[in-house]
Write a structure and sequence with these properties.
By secondary structure, this protein is mainly α. Helices cover 67% and strands 0% of the residues. Helix 3 runs antiparallel to helix 4 and helix 7 packs antiparallel against helix 8.
Length: 189
C-alpha cells in the first residue's frame, strides 16, 4: 500500500523481502501471497493504459525475485545452510504416538457460529460494498478469506489455532462495515 502511494520501488522490494522473512519463520505466511499478488495486479491496473499486463509483469517479477532471493539467502546462511531441516517439518509425514489419524482433523464450519455476529457483519459489509460499488476496497481481505477457506477445506490436519487464518479477514470485513456505519452516523449529524 505504501508503494501505491509513493510509487517508489523500494517499498515493493521491501515487501518482497519481508514476505521472504515471514515465509522463513512459518510457511503459513504464504496464505497472504495470493492477496498480495491480486493487490499488485489491481494497483497496476490503470484506466489510461491499454495494457496493464505490461506494468504487472515486471512489478510481479521484481517482487517475486526479491522474495525468492532473500528466502534462499536466509535458507542457505541461517543455521549453516540447513535448508533441508527447515523444509523437513513441512514435507515429511510424522507419526505422533497416541494421535489419531490426521484425516480426522478437518475444519468444521460450525466453528464460525461461535462468532456469528462478526461473520454476519462481514457478509453485510460485502453486500454494502457491492451496493456502493466499492468492492475494490475489500479485495485484499476477500482474497485472503478465499485463499484460507480453500486451503483449509482440503488441508489435514486442521488444528483449532488455524481459525485465526479465517478470523483475520472476517474481522477486517466486519471492521470495514463498522467504519462505514460510524462515518455515516457522523456525516448524518
Amino acid at each position: 500500500f505504501r508503494w501505491n502511494g509513493s510509487g517508489h520501488p523500494a517499498w515493493l522490494l521491501g515487501s518482497g523481502a519481508v514476505m521472504a522473512v515471514a515465509l522463513q519463520i512459518k510457511l503459513t505466511a504464504g496464505l497472504v501471497m495470493p492477496a498480495v499478488l491480486i493487490e499488485l495486479a489491481l494497483l497496476s491496473w490503470d484506466r489510461h493504459t491499454t495494457s496493464p499486463i505490461r506494468k504487472l509483469i515486471p512489478r510481479g517479477l521484481l517482487w517475486g525475485a526479491v522474495m525468492t532471493a532473500v528466502f534462499t539467502l536466509i535458507g542457505l546462511t541461517w543455521g549453516k545452510g540447513a535448508l533441508e531441516s527447515s523444509w523437513k517439518s513441512h514435507t515429511k509425514e510424522q507419526i505422533v504416538p497416541g494421535l489419531e489419524r490426521v484425516e480426522g482433523h478437518r475444519f468444521e464450519p460450525r466453528l464460525l457460529s461461535s462468532h456469528i455476529e462478526c461473520v454476519s457483519a462481514a457478509i453485510l459489509g460485502i453486500l454494502v460494498a457491492v451496493g456502493k460499488k466499492r468492492l475494490r476496497e475489500l479485495s485484499f481481505p476477500l482474497a485472503l478469506l478465499l485463499t484460507a477457506s480453500l486451503i483449509h477445506s482440503v488441508h489435514r490436519p486442521w488444528w483449532n489455532y488455524y481459525y485465526l487464518h479465517l478470523a483475520v479477514p472476517i474481522a477486517w470485513l466486519a471492521g470495514w462495515l463498522v467504519n462505514e456505519l460510524i462515518r455515516g452516523y457522523f456525516s448524518f449529524r
